[in-house]
Write a structure and sequence with these properties.
The chain is an alpha+beta fold and 165 residues long. Helix content is 45%, strand content 30%. The chain has one domain: Double Stranded RNA Binding Domain, CATH 3.30.160.150. The protein has 4 helices and 4 strands; from the N terminus they run H-H-E-H-E-E-E-H. It has a 4-stranded mixed beta sheet. It is elongated, with a radius of gyration of 21 Å. About 7% of the residues have low confidence.
């Protein structure tokens, strides 16, 4: 009975969306093929590598086809210590990651889209050295995932507008 009620509730939620002309971003013609044709170029560094991996996953790169676009990334990272404990050392850290990116058409070298995304993450300082390293690495992973998601949304919007015009 619970399953039937849940199915009915889902059905009631979908019907109004279908009636209002709602179309998911990925359903737009040209969005998914555009994203899957992007080759990602990242600078050196751990966070840049993680960002490249997250973007490849987000774009669902089609490795069977040659890329039509290249995404060039430039990253800056800044660490700030925040708060002091009794030993006059930082209680936690704030990391600021800024990603500048350009979407370049590989065939002609024309820059199609440029953007900047900033992400701030915090992590606790730890007394044990390994715990501190693990916390910092976790913060880098979270920052890379957040930046990748913001870039994916920005580029998906670009391809949706491009296919609509």
């Amino acid at each position: 009975m619970k399953r039937l009620c849940a199915l009915f509730a889902v059905f009631l939620g979908i019907v109004p969306l279908a009636a209002c002309g709602f179309t998911p971003l990925y359903a737009e013609p040209g969005v998914s093929p555009g994203l899957s044709a992007i080759e990602v170029r990242v600078p050196h560094g751990r966070t840049a590598f993680l960002l490249g991996e997250a973007l490849d996953d987000a774009f669902a790169r089609d490795r069977g086809q040659p890329p039509r676009y290249r995404l060039e990334l430039v990253m800056t990272e800044r660490d700030y210590s925040r708060g002091l404990n009794l030993a006059n050392t930082a209680k936690f850290f704030e990391d600021e990651f800024t990603v500048r990116y350009k979407l370049v058409e590989i065939g002609g070298g024309r820059v199609l889209k440029e953007g900047v995304q900033s992400v701030e993450v915090t992590y606790s300082a730890a007394d044990q050295p390994y715990a501190g390293v693990a916390a910092q690495e976790d913060a880098q992973k979270r920052a890379a995932d957040q930046a990748a998601e913001r870039i994916r949304i920005d580029l998906a919007s670009y391809f949706a507008r491009k296919s609509a015009s």
